[in-house]
Design a protein that fits this description.
Strand order of the largest sheet: 3-9-8-6-7
Order of helices and strands: EEEEEEEEEEE
Helix content: under 10%
Largest sheet: 5 strands, mixed
Number of helices: 0
Radius of gyration: 24 Å
Distance between the termini: 74 Å
Amino acid sequence: MLNITAPAFEHHSEPLGIGESGPRLSWTVTTDTPGWTQAGYEIELGDGTATGRVESAESVLVPWPGTPLGSRERRGARVRVHGADGSASDWSPWSYVEAGLLEPATGRPRPPRRRRSCWAGPTGPRCCCAATSRSGRPSPAPASTSPRTACTRPS
């Protein structure tokens, strides 16, 4: 008998808010048949995308077969494997992945914004950069005593 685990996405134990728009899938097969080897697989996604049978023994970090995920998009996947002896497993349980906030044009995670602050100091202008949130509010600045890296304006 063939048993297949629900697919994992990019080795995430909790694939929620991940930074990949095309996460690779991995699965594990257990069997009591001595010498059994995987000869192919099928992947089905929750949106109806199906690969059909793919002749491959790969089961680790297999390329995403569907359209890329958009920001905050959730999609399910399941897998069925075929053995070199002609056997086939049942479908694995469904597993779900959800993308985080991705750049619209590239599908990559958004980097934090940097804001540059400058003011007149006793020895000339002083500047620093501070990460800001999407709302434009400054993120907490790192604690520092050096005037070159301090991001608080002197009073």
